[in-house]
């Protein structure tokens, strides 16, 4: 039997050295962002997976810790707690308790009312006097009394938007009735303020007249780059400038107004002693031209018609036969082959090609004789103009006039369509004399108003009166004004 050989001796220091050398050669935690797919990368992935598995296995978990539930608050305890918080303030103190009762605080049986309420209201656009009072808390009975008291001075719906109403509502006997109106003050007109006060339980009205200077306002200046900008620089309101340009455009093209021309605008103007002003309509439009005839236009009422007259007393041209639609003539009056019926027959009017829905205008003043469906004409309107003359408008998509209605030249009476015997949207326009179709191009309506006698004398006197009004400041050096690109002018009032 052989002797057993002794086990080899292993020095621990040598073993640790070998392990250390192996660890230096083998990287167990490599950067997984590099060398993806290599043996070293898979070794690092295995190490990361093992560490994550160990972390999950050794996690303690998150089970809830049992505890006794909080007792629910009763209504009384809840209100007590809530009264100590800011919640009542945020909710408008609807808890009824603003603080807990103490020796210094005792609850009230009911909240006392204010002896009176002072407020200010205003009439809005499209609003009415009665609705404004109702919104302010005035009872319907008091509002009705107010309307009865001021009815002679304030017509329904005539108070301007923005009119302020100073209102005082008094004490009421019980909470079940509205507060009585104790005081109301407002500006009924530029020349009249009104106050209503309750005296011995009865509303009484006091009218306060206000002095008003009604001298017209005159604005003069020199045209620079633009008449509109020049007049605005001189203080003319935009609405007045637009009216001025419309009047001038009836006499000359606007583009003929040149730099250096002088404009003269006179407006209806009222100034109250309180400082309030009211700018009215354009009364006079003048244009001094460097080239061409100067213009003097005055607004004048002749009979029942108000219109613009030249300085010589010649008024506007009325009733001129105008284009009934914005378009071009596509078919004239006369014999033609009908595009639908296929045979030649009389075309008793003029066709104007226009886009669908374009407005159709009355060619001159008249009365609507017919409005509705009319055979091959489709939707059709016929106007009677007097003297046996009438006009017809056919193939409308929609009618905007009614039988018996009086229309003015240029008023919209319908819209272009393709109803009836029509191949596309257009207007078929006809002219009648004593009920018989005639060529629309054969008649022109031209009438001019002319003042004579006493009417002409009164007109010229008014024109001289307005042109004698003073202007506070104006330049006498048009060249400098034109260089400045605007107007050096000013507004003034006086005689």
TrEMBL record:
Lineage top rank: taxon: Bacteria
Q: Which GO terms describe its biological process?
A: proteolysis
Among CDD domains, the record links this protein to: M23_peptidase
Gene Ontology MF term list: metal ion binding; metalloendopeptidase activity
Name the cofactor(s). Answer: Zn(2+)
Which Gene3D superfamilies does the entry link to? Answer: 3.10.450.350, Glucose Permease (Domain IIA)
For the M23ase beta-sheet core domain, which residue ranges apply? Answer: 345-440
What InterPro entries does UniProt report for this protein, alphabetically?
Answer: Cell_wall_metabolism_enzyme (IPR050570), Dup_hybrid_motif (IPR011055), M23ase_b-sheet_dom (IPR016047)
Alphabetic keyword roster:
Hydrolase, Metal-binding, Metalloprotease, Protease, Zinc
Protein name in UniProt = M23 family metallopeptidase
- According to its UniProt entry, this protein's organism is Sphingobium phenoxybenzoativorans
